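Shipment paperwork, digital attachment
Item: protein structure file
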Amino acid sequence: MQTYLEIVLAREDSAKEVKLFELGPKLLARYREIFERHLPRGPARSRCGATRWGFALGLASTRAFYARLRLDRDRDRARRDHARRR
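Attachment content:
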């Protein structure tokens, strides 16, 4: 629901309907209500936890990427060495 409200409030193609039916204040109030319900401790604490998880997952994915890159490089070297020996 929050994503839908973000889209309706921010997109240009929804602006006419929002203005015509004067839905802006109602939709914005609903958005704030949902936001505060999901982040009761405040956005700063939630961001801190999210930042930690984001950093950890980003680090893990970067390590996995470079490990795969190294595997591919080593495999290609082994193939070239094998081809040269023939």
